[in-house]
Amino acid sequence: MLSFLSSWVKMILSIYIFATLVEIVLPTNKFKKYVRFVLGFIILITIIMPIFQFIGKNIDVENTVASYYEKYSLEDGNNTNLNEYNKQLILEFKNNLSKRIEEDIKNRLNLEYVVKDIKIDENMSSLSFGKVYSLTLIRSYKSNIKPVEKVVIGRTNEEDAETIKVKKYLSEYLKISQDEITVIK
Questions:
Q1: 126 pLDDT band (50/70/90 cuts)?
Q2: For residue 88, what is the DSSP state?
Q3: 66 to each of 35, 43, 80, 82, how far by Cα in Å?
Q4: Rounded distance, CA 179 to CA 97, Å?
Q5: Residues 37-90 pLDDT 10s
Q6: pTM (2 d.p.)
Q7: Do 28 and 37 meet the contact criterion of CB atoms below 8 Å apart?
Q8: Which of 9, 11, 39 is nearest to 23 (CA)?
Q9: 3-state secondary structure (DSSP) of residue 50
Q10: Exposed, middle or buried by CB within 10 Å (0-12, 13-18, 19+), for 181?
């Protein structure tokens, strides 16, 4: 019994030292919190497993982890899950990009526009993933009353100064042609 406890404590200490070394070696970034989680999980399993064995309940961790891996694995014909995940990821990317564009127009130009439609490169394996191809904006007014636009007789399809300013800014910001940006007032 004493040798069992001694080996158990040695195992916990060696895994804890290994986890500490891994944390020291890793750079500080978002990836580090996932590594900490996994290392903490390994330490927790190391502490708990002998307790269950001592109580008399034999739990097979390897088979349990393997069954969860098979259930949630994306390799064995679960491409529909991967496709749905990718669609959700692209939709979330578009929503975040739209919000960022709206905020930038508001902060830089002091104008309120809502992104109605945005077309991007949706190929996730492409280097140009997320590149904006076209954009449609709608002028947003704080109240439901739209200001009366200046009526000019004799000119057609000319853009006002505000539209030109928005198109120019977005063209430089998103690195797309002004022809690909549609502004609806």
A1: confident
A2: H
A3: 20, 19, 21, 20
A4: 20
A5: 888 888 888 888 777 666 655 556 567 666 766 665 555 455 566 677 788 888
A6: 0.52
A7: no
A8: 39
A9: helix
A10: buried
